Amino acid sequence: MSAHPRTPSSRRRPYRRRAARRTTRYAARRFNASNPLERLLILLVIAVVVGVTIGIVLPKLSPTVGGLTGEYTAVGDAAETLETLTVDDDQSGEGYDRDLFGYRETDVDGNGCDVRDDVLARDLTDVTYTDGCKVASGVLDDPYTGRTIAFTRGARTSSAVQIDHVVALENAWQSGAKDWDTARRYEFGNDMYNLLAVDGPANSEKGSASAAYWLPTNGDYRCEYVARQIGVKAKYGLSVTSQEKQSMLAVLHGCPAQEVPSS
């Protein structure tokens, strides 16, 4: 009797290795023996996949490549309006304070409610009210995420729907609003053209980011989103950075008929 008996598992290992070798050799022989046309088709498929991947990824990684491939070219009303905006890569947020824009401190239409309720009333459906014009509940088809959100007014529930400045207040400050007087900043801070009811977490994620750093996850809304930002900046004479403009053009490249919203 052997001093070191072989266990069942140790007896199986050589068989498994032999089986693996046979499988590998069989696959190699089968490929080598396959029809030359079949091999050519396989190589063509690989080449197409690699080519498509390069075509998608490289323009995103390299602005130079993106320019050469037309990634940052666009036509149409929104693109033409974008070309009228000043490009300024020397922007500064020094001195910014959100309170300088007086958000929710005006009542332009004199209905007794601030602009948050006015936007909720405009953007939600199935709206109910309390105390006159204050929105108590409603349903939002969120443009940023594509989700449907049931809104209920309350200390723990109101934040599910937030009001976003499409061109963020800090972005506006950096691109020209720092030079405005108080009346102009209050007008901007409460302009319904620049305000949307949106998903709360998406609004928090966006923060003060421009189109260079944040776009809605709902791809179907990106063209309209960028066009509204362009419209706001054109209305108030605000500038864009080179990177911001490039990102806007990349979006508008896919929607040549996109117009700047009129209201």
TrEMBL record:
Which parts of the sequence are annotated with region: Disordered?
1-21
Q: Which UniProt keywords apply?
A: Endonuclease, Hydrolase, Nuclease
InterPro entries given in the database record: GmrSD_C
- Gene Ontology terms, MF aspect: endonuclease activity
Bias (Basic residues) occurs at: 9-21
Xref: Pfam families: GmrSD_C (PF07510)
Domain GmrSD restriction endonucleases C-terminal residues, every copy: 115-250
The answer, when asked if Nuclease is one of the entry's keywords, is yes
Q: Does the keyword Cell cycle apply?
A: no
Name of the featured protein: HNH endonuclease
Organism of origin? Bifidobacterium phasiani
